[in-house]
Amino acid sequence: MQFNFAQLFALAAVLSGAVSDACKCGGNVDATVACCKSVGGSANGDDCPANQISERLSNFASCCNNLGARSDCRCPVGCARKELDTARAAQGLPPATDKDVLNYVQEYDLA
After folding, report:
1. Please, which residues bridge with residue 44 across strands?
2. Which of the 8 DSSP states describes residue 24?
3. 66 and 29 share a domain?
4. Which candidate, 53, 108, 31, places its Cα nearest to that of 77?
5. By residue range, what is the domain housing residue 25?
6. Residue 41 class from Cβ within 10 Å (0-12 exposed, 13-18 middle, 19+ buried)?
7. How far is CA 90 from CA 75, 84, 85, 95, 101, in A?
8. pLDDT in tens, 13-64
9. Residue 62 and residue 86 in contact, taking contact as beta carbons nearer than 8 Å
10. What mean pLDDT is reported for the chain?
């Protein structure tokens, strides 16, 4: 089955509907608070309200990754593509295919 970008974007939109009420950078409270603030949200304890950052989830996820943690909110396709392409480039591999990105989004950790 071949997926195009529009189909991947639609799938990401459906999957992002399953976003939890709050996002976290794994168990790292300091990273969660810092990343929440960096994308314009106001952390509530160790949670960043997803409705405050819903259009900036990829930035939140990237911030978590930069601080050595992984966001528990689904990463949109654009974020997944960027993460995969960066990792593949570091290994000397070509950019990710649409299928690679789809698989990555489906496997995104919702710990």
Report:
1. 47
2. -
3. yes
4. 108
5. 20-73
6. buried
7. 21, 10, 9, 11, 17
8. 444 443 458 899 989 999 999 999 999 999 998 999 988 887 788 788 888 9
9. no
10. 78
- Regarding whether 66 and 41 lie in a shared domain, the answer is yes
* DSSP line for 38-107: HTT---BTTBEEHHHHGGGHHHHHHHHHHTT--BSSPPPHHHHHHHHHHHHHHTTPPPPPHHHHHHHHHT
Q: What is the pLDDT of residue 1?
A: 52
The total number of structural domains in the chain stands at 2
The pTM of the whole model exceeds 0.70 = no
**Alpha-carbon Rg of the chain, whole angstroms?**
14
User: In whole angstroms, what is the distance from residue 49 CA to residue 7 CA?
Assistant: 28
